[in-house]
User: What shape does this take?
Amino acid sequence: MPDFTGIELEKAQKIAAKLDLDLKVEDEVYNNVIEKGKIISQDLKPKSKIKRGRTVYVILSKGSKLVTVPDIINNLKSKAVMELKNNDLEEGIESTITSNIYKENFIIAQSPLPGTQIEFKSKINFLKSSGEKKQEFLMPDLINQNIFVIYKKLSAKKLFISQLLIEENENFESGTIIEQKPPRGYKITDETEIILKVTKKQSDPSLKKRLIKISYTFTESNVAKLIKINVFSLNGTETIFNEILEPGKTINLNARVIGDAIVQIFIGNELIKEIEYKSK
Assistant: This one.
């Protein structure tokens, strides 16, 4: 069996006729490699033994198909990739850059440019936004400072304590920070996990266990969102709610705390409300 791949149809038919083979075109498809009118593939394996009179089916090239590059700029990446596929194009090299104009995962630029005529299945390279550049801070020395004072200072810079560890210790006033992570001088952003260990004096008369009531109505959006509610006190940290909430819905919760307490309410990762509960 001869190999007809890359041979013009007319020439392949002459070769087939000499070998008493019947060559038929099964299909014609676009191809960026094989020129128009030449054979892309065949159903019978080249160099295999066959009987005279057999029919050989081949796939013929229609040549390269030109398509118009769509405009994917200012589209979310997932939508942009779908747009490329719908136009017989493929995702190419992805580069990222911070941007104060384009939101995270949105396309800023593309190559080739929109409207360019190129071969189908070509790759489109694009530049994607990674969002605004994260503001960096140096982690301050928090040791021997009061947790509630520090909480407010960190919160003002949109830095949040992810975990509060409690240690019973009669040598320090309640709420004194004795360990911190990351350490002083470490570079941090609003995504850095901050873990603090603070003291609690058993002899402190102000540290009474109590129940606080929390009520929140979701009015910040007209679509359902993930709502998370955290509680901080000298009882430690606790996430008491972390669910999708429909607009207009109200949740009523109770939380057990020790001493002063702060309640944080997040929509996604954005803090939208803080409530302070002072111990009496």
In short: The longest helix spans residues 9-18. The CA atoms of residues 180 and 196 lie 5 Å apart. The helical segments are 9-18, 77-86, 147-156. The two ends are 95 Å apart (CA to CA).
